[in-house]
């Protein structure tokens, strides 16, 4: 049987397959149509190709398509069966056949159920291909990856493969009798950055001294060196490490040759390091390249003021910075795409009501850790809605230091106060929380945060191992909650853009208010970033005027107007 070309072909074959029971035909047809609706495509336009289907299915947010998670899981499972019975070779999501005796015996050696389960899929795949356990090496796992990517409807083939490799190696180390060939574990990304420990101690000490001078804590440091807030110092420290790594990777110096900061800003090395990022971005300028060049320029300015480099060297570094300077107006295209759904009031309502929806899901009779996570997410999203903080400031909120009340009994007013030194642009933030937000805060602090605390710290969002939540991980967690509950792709920083979009839509031209809400130092920053929202509103107002004028002038030119149906 030839493989079907499109899902329309799959549906036709399923509906005419007399080998299937009527219920099976009905279930598979339902799944195929369900997938077509979720992808918003005609079935004849959807290739019956596992790799293409994988990419498209993984991009679907069930909530956005009006589908429950259980229904979507059932649809994917039945689609997999439909493809299999109509001639597509599809790796099953779950193997139901028996393992070969050698693989049965091997898995039986594993005590931990999670590890046994984690290796089960590969074991079945190997057993089906009649591979012996002692034969397994990288080439066998690569064949497994090929099937996952090209012959399966898997949610994340790369992650499934990596976990199988990790689990195999764990079994090699810990399970008696397991074959002793370790598998090469793929990198999570194309990381290139060396650790600071790979560079000489002199460079590390010079970097520490530089950022101490930039911290604003020493009143005798040259005033022309603008103090940097702690988040900026952390960001630039990483950018210098990226740059030093790029210099080494381009062959302009070895790690050991970068003994001090002057070694890092030699003009030839600066050009080589910046070219690394230029070429890595497809020979295009980018905000990342500009930021790294700016961090290097800051070091050069510091060194020339100290007399550690001459003016000609500084001028060369400054010239390199100007050559790659990239300051795009407006927002990145990806953010425009993510904001587009918020032109629809229904999507705005989904996000604005999400905190209440999450709180309503909790069990009111019994306080559980699961509900604590829900209420924590609700509070974090609520704060981002009323006070669009940067994710670092949100995660690092302390109950005693940053949350202030006018009355101890909880009946007064509640403020969030963040000193300028903790904010990226150095501007102090102090905002009163609306009553509903303060009530949600009290609910979380009184009933749910105690279930999440692992130490005596006063972090509003405590981490599992003490301290606060990991900044990037918590941001990803919130993004996933929003995606799961609403179908919208919203990362924490997008709340700042959403705030500007919603306010300017209702109040065209009021950039000064947006500047205060977002904590921008300069009005120009706000206008450059969000002027397009004002343009959108202007076009909408113009269109309304034209439509109104058209209605007023119906018949004036002997035309009664067209009926577009």
From TrEMBL:
SUPFAM superfamilies per UniProt: DNA breaking-rejoining enzymes
Domain Tyr recombinase, by residue range, is: 338-543
Q: Which Gene3D superfamilies match?
A: Intergrase catalytic core
Annotated GO molecular function terms are:
DNA binding
CDD domains associated with the record: DNA_BRE_C
Q: Name one GO biological process term.
A: DNA integration
The answer to whether UniProt assigns keyword Ion transport to this entry is no
Pfam families xref list: Phage_integrase
State if DNA-binding is listed as a keyword.
yes
Q: Which UniProt keyword terms apply here? A: DNA integration, DNA recombination, DNA-binding
Q: Which family does it belong to?
A: Belongs to the 'phage' integrase family.
Designated name of the protein: Site-specific integrase
